[in-house]
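Batch manifest line 336
LIGAND: zinc ion
JOB: complex structure
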Amino acid sequence: MTLRVIPRLLRLAMTDKPTLQVQNISRKAIPAKSETPKPLPPIPTVPITSSTGQTIPLIDIGSQISSKYYRPHRLRENHIPTLLERASKAGLSHIILTGTTHSESVEALETCAAFDGTHSVTLRCTVGIHPHRATSTMTSSYRNTFDAELEKLIMSEKGKKYCVALGECGLDYDRKFSLHQHQKEVFQKQLRLAKKLGKPVFLHNRNAHDDFFTILKPYLPDIKAVAHCHTDPSVQHLKQLLDAGVYIGLTGIICDPREGRFNTEIIKYIPLERLMVETDSPYLFPRNVPKPWGERNCEPCLTSFVVKKIAEVRGDCNEEIVARKTTQVAKAFFGL
Ligand SMILES: [Zn+2]
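JOB STATUS: finished
ARTIFACT:
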Protein backbone atom coordinates (compact mmCIF):
# COMPACT_ATOMS: atom_id res chain seq x y z
CA MET A 1 0.00 0.00 0.00
CA THR A 2 1.36 3.41 -0.85
CA LEU A 3 1.49 6.18 1.70
CA ARG A 4 -0.71 8.24 -0.59
CA VAL A 5 -3.54 5.77 -0.13
CA ILE A 6 -3.38 5.72 3.64
CA PRO A 7 -4.63 9.23 4.41
CA ARG A 8 -7.67 8.74 2.18
CA LEU A 9 -8.53 5.45 3.84
CA LEU A 10 -7.89 6.92 7.24
CA ARG A 11 -10.34 9.69 6.46
CA LEU A 12 -12.95 7.06 5.76
CA ALA A 13 -12.16 4.88 8.68
CA MET A 14 -10.55 7.08 11.27
CA THR A 15 -11.50 7.25 14.85
CA ASP A 16 -12.50 9.82 17.38
CA LYS A 17 -15.86 9.11 15.82
CA PRO A 18 -17.83 8.62 18.98
CA THR A 19 -21.29 8.63 17.44
CA LEU A 20 -20.85 6.26 14.55
CA GLN A 21 -18.37 3.92 16.09
CA VAL A 22 -20.06 3.48 19.41
CA GLN A 23 -23.48 3.10 17.89
CA ASN A 24 -22.08 0.27 15.85
CA ILE A 25 -20.56 -1.29 18.92
CA SER A 26 -23.75 -0.85 20.88
CA ARG A 27 -25.83 -2.53 18.20
CA LYS A 28 -23.60 -5.55 18.47
CA ALA A 29 -23.28 -5.51 22.24
CA ILE A 30 -26.89 -4.92 23.31
CA PRO A 31 -29.30 -7.74 22.63
CA ALA A 32 -32.84 -6.87 21.58
CA LYS A 33 -35.21 -6.72 24.54
CA SER A 34 -37.01 -9.92 23.57
CA GLU A 35 -33.75 -11.94 23.50
CA THR A 36 -32.22 -13.48 26.58
CA PRO A 37 -28.83 -11.81 27.04
CA LYS A 38 -26.01 -14.30 26.61
CA PRO A 39 -23.23 -14.14 29.20
CA LEU A 40 -20.36 -12.21 27.65
CA PRO A 41 -16.72 -13.24 27.94
CA PRO A 42 -14.97 -11.03 30.48
CA ILE A 43 -12.82 -8.16 29.25
CA PRO A 44 -9.20 -9.32 29.71
CA THR A 45 -7.02 -7.83 32.43
CA VAL A 46 -3.54 -8.89 31.41
CA PRO A 47 -0.69 -6.94 33.00
CA ILE A 48 2.76 -6.56 31.55
CA THR A 49 5.13 -8.50 33.78
CA SER A 50 8.87 -8.69 34.24
CA SER A 51 10.90 -11.86 33.78
CA THR A 52 10.47 -12.46 37.52
CA GLY A 53 6.68 -12.11 37.31
CA GLN A 54 6.49 -8.61 38.74
CA THR A 55 3.69 -6.38 37.34
CA ILE A 56 5.01 -3.29 35.54
CA PRO A 57 2.86 -0.21 36.28
CA LEU A 58 1.21 1.39 33.24
CA ILE A 59 -0.22 4.86 32.68
CA ASP A 60 -3.16 5.39 30.32
CA ILE A 61 -2.74 9.03 29.32
CA GLY A 62 -6.15 9.36 27.63
CA SER A 63 -9.47 7.91 28.71
CA GLN A 64 -13.02 9.06 29.33
CA ILE A 65 -14.11 6.66 32.05
CA SER A 66 -17.26 8.62 32.85
CA SER A 67 -18.43 8.48 29.22
CA LYS A 68 -22.10 7.82 28.68
CA TYR A 69 -21.10 5.14 26.18
CA TYR A 70 -20.27 2.82 29.06
CA ARG A 71 -23.68 3.16 30.59
CA PRO A 72 -26.11 1.30 28.31
CA HIS A 73 -24.63 -2.11 28.95
CA ARG A 74 -22.56 -1.62 32.03
CA LEU A 75 -23.42 -1.05 35.63
CA ARG A 76 -24.57 2.55 35.03
CA GLU A 77 -23.39 4.90 37.78
CA ASN A 78 -21.43 2.10 39.42
CA HIS A 79 -19.38 1.23 36.37
CA ILE A 80 -16.39 3.33 37.42
CA PRO A 81 -15.27 1.32 40.49
CA THR A 82 -15.50 -1.97 38.55
CA LEU A 83 -13.71 -0.41 35.59
CA LEU A 84 -10.95 0.77 37.95
CA GLU A 85 -10.75 -2.68 39.54
CA ARG A 86 -10.09 -4.19 36.10
CA ALA A 87 -7.57 -1.42 35.39
CA SER A 88 -5.77 -2.17 38.64
CA LYS A 89 -5.61 -5.89 37.83
CA ALA A 90 -4.07 -4.98 34.47
CA GLY A 91 -1.34 -2.97 36.20
CA LEU A 92 -2.63 0.56 35.67
CA SER A 93 -1.18 2.92 38.26
CA HIS A 94 -2.57 6.14 36.73
CA ILE A 95 -5.30 7.13 34.29
CA ILE A 96 -5.57 10.62 32.84
CA LEU A 97 -9.13 11.54 31.98
CA THR A 98 -9.70 13.67 28.91
CA GLY A 99 -11.64 16.94 29.11
CA THR A 100 -13.27 17.83 25.78
CA THR A 101 -15.55 20.74 26.71
CA HIS A 102 -15.91 23.02 29.71
CA SER A 103 -18.71 20.88 31.15
CA GLU A 104 -16.94 17.60 30.42
CA SER A 105 -13.81 19.01 32.02
CA VAL A 106 -15.87 19.77 35.13
CA GLU A 107 -17.12 16.18 35.00
CA ALA A 108 -13.55 14.90 34.65
CA LEU A 109 -12.48 16.88 37.72
CA GLU A 110 -15.50 15.61 39.66
CA THR A 111 -14.71 12.03 38.64
CA CYS A 112 -11.13 12.46 39.84
CA ALA A 113 -12.36 13.87 43.15
CA ALA A 114 -14.83 11.03 43.63
CA PHE A 115 -12.71 8.07 42.51
CA ASP A 116 -9.02 9.00 42.76
CA GLY A 117 -7.18 6.16 44.50
CA THR A 118 -9.98 3.60 44.03
CA HIS A 119 -8.31 0.18 43.71
CA SER A 120 -4.99 2.03 44.00
CA VAL A 121 -5.43 3.78 40.64
CA THR A 122 -4.49 7.47 40.62
CA LEU A 123 -6.80 9.65 38.55
CA ARG A 124 -5.83 12.96 36.98
CA CYS A 125 -7.36 14.86 34.06
CA THR A 126 -6.99 17.41 31.31
CA VAL A 127 -9.16 20.52 31.00
CA GLY A 128 -9.92 21.94 27.58
CA ILE A 129 -12.02 22.16 24.44
CA HIS A 130 -11.85 19.59 21.64
CA PRO A 131 -11.75 20.96 18.06
CA HIS A 132 -15.12 19.31 17.36
CA ARG A 133 -16.55 21.71 19.92
CA ALA A 134 -14.90 24.84 18.54
CA THR A 135 -17.86 26.14 16.55
CA SER A 136 -20.35 25.48 19.34
CA THR A 137 -17.98 27.38 21.65
CA MET A 138 -17.48 30.28 19.22
CA THR A 139 -21.21 30.67 18.63
CA SER A 140 -22.09 30.55 22.33
CA SER A 141 -22.19 33.31 24.92
CA TYR A 142 -18.76 32.05 26.06
CA ARG A 143 -17.02 32.91 22.78
CA ASN A 144 -15.04 35.76 24.30
CA THR A 145 -14.53 34.24 27.72
CA PHE A 146 -14.10 30.48 27.24
CA ASP A 147 -10.37 30.67 27.88
CA ALA A 148 -10.92 32.68 31.07
CA GLU A 149 -13.50 30.07 32.12
CA LEU A 150 -10.99 27.26 31.50
CA GLU A 151 -8.41 29.17 33.52
CA LYS A 152 -10.84 29.49 36.43
CA LEU A 153 -11.43 25.76 36.29
CA ILE A 154 -7.72 24.92 36.22
CA MET A 155 -7.02 27.32 39.09
CA SER A 156 -9.92 26.03 41.20
CA GLU A 157 -9.19 23.83 44.19
CA LYS A 158 -9.96 20.64 42.26
CA GLY A 159 -8.18 21.96 39.17
CA LYS A 160 -4.98 22.54 41.12
CA LYS A 161 -5.17 19.06 42.56
CA TYR A 162 -6.21 17.02 39.52
CA CYS A 163 -5.63 18.93 36.25
CA VAL A 164 -2.28 17.97 34.73
CA ALA A 165 -2.64 19.42 31.21
CA LEU A 166 -4.65 21.65 28.94
CA GLY A 167 -6.66 19.86 26.29
CA GLU A 168 -7.59 18.04 24.44
CA CYS A 169 -7.14 20.82 21.95
CA GLY A 170 -6.03 21.07 18.35
CA LEU A 171 -7.45 20.76 14.86
CA ASP A 172 -9.65 18.18 13.14
CA TYR A 173 -10.19 18.61 9.42
CA ASP A 174 -11.30 15.00 9.06
CA ARG A 175 -14.78 15.36 10.42
CA LYS A 176 -16.85 18.47 9.81
CA PHE A 177 -18.10 19.37 13.26
CA SER A 178 -16.43 22.80 13.45
CA LEU A 179 -15.34 25.49 11.02
CA HIS A 180 -11.59 25.63 10.49
CA GLN A 181 -11.42 29.28 11.55
CA HIS A 182 -13.19 28.53 14.82
CA GLN A 183 -10.90 25.55 15.46
CA LYS A 184 -7.78 27.65 14.92
CA GLU A 185 -8.95 30.38 17.27
CA VAL A 186 -9.99 27.98 20.03
CA PHE A 187 -6.70 26.05 19.64
CA GLN A 188 -4.55 29.18 19.71
CA LYS A 189 -6.25 30.59 22.81
CA GLN A 190 -5.71 27.31 24.67
CA LEU A 191 -2.03 27.28 23.71
CA ARG A 192 -1.74 30.83 25.02
CA LEU A 193 -3.39 29.77 28.26
CA ALA A 194 -1.10 26.73 28.59
CA LYS A 195 1.91 29.01 28.24
CA LYS A 196 0.52 31.45 30.80
CA LEU A 197 -0.20 28.69 33.32
CA GLY A 198 2.89 26.61 32.56
CA LYS A 199 0.78 23.53 31.74
CA PRO A 200 1.56 20.82 29.19
CA VAL A 201 -0.89 20.42 26.29
CA PHE A 202 -2.74 17.28 25.22
CA LEU A 203 -3.14 17.66 21.46
CA HIS A 204 -5.57 16.37 18.88
CA ASN A 205 -4.70 16.48 15.18
CA ARG A 206 -6.57 14.81 12.33
CA ASN A 207 -5.71 15.51 8.76
CA ALA A 208 -4.62 19.05 9.60
CA HIS A 209 -0.87 18.72 10.01
CA ASP A 210 0.28 21.90 8.25
CA ASP A 211 -2.07 24.31 10.05
CA PHE A 212 -1.68 22.36 13.29
CA PHE A 213 2.10 22.55 13.26
CA THR A 214 2.19 26.20 12.12
CA ILE A 215 -0.01 27.25 15.05
CA LEU A 216 1.73 25.00 17.58
CA LYS A 217 5.38 25.60 16.75
CA PRO A 218 5.85 29.11 18.23
CA TYR A 219 4.63 27.81 21.60
CA LEU A 220 6.89 24.76 21.77
CA PRO A 221 9.91 26.45 23.30
CA ASP A 222 7.69 27.31 26.29
CA ILE A 223 5.30 24.38 26.71
CA LYS A 224 5.44 20.60 26.70
CA ALA A 225 3.14 18.94 24.17
CA VAL A 226 1.90 15.43 23.42
CA ALA A 227 0.16 14.55 20.15
CA HIS A 228 -2.47 12.20 21.56
CA CYS A 229 -3.74 9.28 19.47
CA HIS A 230 -1.21 10.01 16.75
CA THR A 231 -2.53 8.43 13.53
CA ASP A 232 -0.84 10.49 10.82
CA PRO A 233 0.76 7.94 8.47
CA SER A 234 3.45 10.36 7.31
CA VAL A 235 6.98 9.73 8.60
CA GLN A 236 7.91 13.25 7.49
CA HIS A 237 5.16 14.81 9.63
CA LEU A 238 6.20 12.65 12.55
CA LYS A 239 9.83 13.75 12.25
CA GLN A 240 8.73 17.39 12.13
CA LEU A 241 6.87 16.94 15.43
CA LEU A 242 9.72 15.03 17.07
CA ASP A 243 12.33 17.58 15.94
CA ALA A 244 10.23 20.30 17.55
CA GLY A 245 10.13 18.39 20.86
CA VAL A 246 6.60 16.98 20.69
CA TYR A 247 5.80 13.71 22.49
CA ILE A 248 3.64 11.04 20.85
CA GLY A 249 0.69 9.11 22.32
CA LEU A 250 -0.32 5.81 20.70
CA THR A 251 -3.69 4.09 21.17
CA GLY A 252 -5.33 0.78 20.26
CA ILE A 253 -5.75 1.97 16.67
CA ILE A 254 -2.16 0.75 16.14
CA CYS A 255 -3.48 -2.81 16.68
CA ASP A 256 -5.96 -2.58 13.81
CA PRO A 257 -4.58 -4.73 10.99
CA ARG A 258 -7.19 -3.67 8.45
CA GLU A 259 -5.69 -1.91 5.47
CA GLY A 260 -5.45 1.85 5.78
CA ARG A 261 -6.25 2.06 9.48
CA PHE A 262 -2.73 2.68 10.78
CA ASN A 263 0.75 2.78 9.28
CA THR A 264 2.68 0.72 11.86
CA GLU A 265 5.98 1.69 10.18
CA ILE A 266 5.90 5.04 11.99
CA ILE A 267 6.19 3.32 15.39
CA LYS A 268 9.82 2.49 14.60
CA TYR A 269 10.65 6.18 14.22
CA ILE A 270 9.40 7.23 17.67
CA PRO A 271 12.14 7.21 20.33
CA LEU A 272 10.94 5.54 23.54
CA GLU A 273 11.95 8.74 25.35
CA ARG A 274 9.07 10.50 23.55
CA LEU A 275 6.45 7.80 23.66
CA MET A 276 3.37 7.36 25.85
CA VAL A 277 0.44 4.93 25.67
CA GLU A 278 -3.28 5.43 25.95
CA THR A 279 -6.58 3.74 25.19
CA ASP A 280 -8.76 6.74 24.19
CA SER A 281 -11.42 4.57 25.81
CA PRO A 282 -14.35 4.01 25.38
CA TYR A 283 -13.23 4.15 21.73
CA LEU A 284 -10.54 2.27 19.80
CA PHE A 285 -10.80 -1.26 21.16
CA PRO A 286 -7.39 -2.90 20.48
CA ARG A 287 -7.97 -5.56 17.88
CA ASN A 288 -5.07 -7.70 19.15
CA VAL A 289 -7.19 -8.67 22.18
CA PRO A 290 -7.86 -12.42 21.77
CA LYS A 291 -11.37 -13.28 20.56
CA PRO A 292 -14.15 -13.72 21.56
CA TRP A 293 -14.32 -10.04 22.51
CA GLY A 294 -17.63 -9.95 24.28
CA GLU A 295 -18.09 -6.41 25.50
CA ARG A 296 -16.58 -4.21 22.86
CA ASN A 297 -16.12 -0.87 24.62
CA CYS A 298 -12.46 -0.18 25.20
CA GLU A 299 -11.26 0.35 28.78
CA PRO A 300 -8.02 1.47 30.44
CA CYS A 301 -7.33 -2.18 31.39
CA LEU A 302 -6.53 -2.78 27.72
CA THR A 303 -3.52 -0.41 27.76
CA SER A 304 -1.23 -3.45 27.95
CA PHE A 305 -2.36 -4.53 24.48
CA VAL A 306 -1.09 -1.24 23.05
CA VAL A 307 2.24 -1.84 24.81
CA LYS A 308 2.43 -5.38 23.40
CA LYS A 309 1.81 -4.14 19.87
CA ILE A 310 4.51 -1.46 20.14
CA ALA A 311 7.08 -4.06 21.27
CA GLU A 312 6.01 -6.44 18.50
CA VAL A 313 6.37 -3.81 15.76
CA ARG A 314 9.65 -2.33 17.01
CA GLY A 315 11.43 -5.60 17.52
CA ASP A 316 14.31 -3.81 19.28
CA CYS A 317 12.84 -3.99 22.80
CA ASN A 318 10.44 -6.21 24.71
CA GLU A 319 7.10 -5.27 26.23
CA GLU A 320 8.62 -4.86 29.69
CA ILE A 321 10.96 -2.16 28.40
CA VAL A 322 8.13 -0.40 26.52
CA ALA A 323 5.98 -0.51 29.67
CA ARG A 324 8.72 0.80 31.97
CA LYS A 325 9.80 3.53 29.61
CA THR A 326 6.35 4.85 28.64
CA THR A 327 5.36 4.98 32.33
CA GLN A 328 8.55 6.86 33.17
CA VAL A 329 7.95 9.32 30.30
CA ALA A 330 4.32 9.94 31.29
CA LYS A 331 5.29 10.54 34.93
CA ALA A 332 7.86 13.13 33.95
CA PHE A 333 5.69 14.76 31.28
CA PHE A 334 2.59 15.23 33.46
CA GLY A 335 4.45 15.65 36.76
CA LEU A 336 2.78 12.58 38.32
ZN1 LIG B 1 -8.57 13.11 20.14
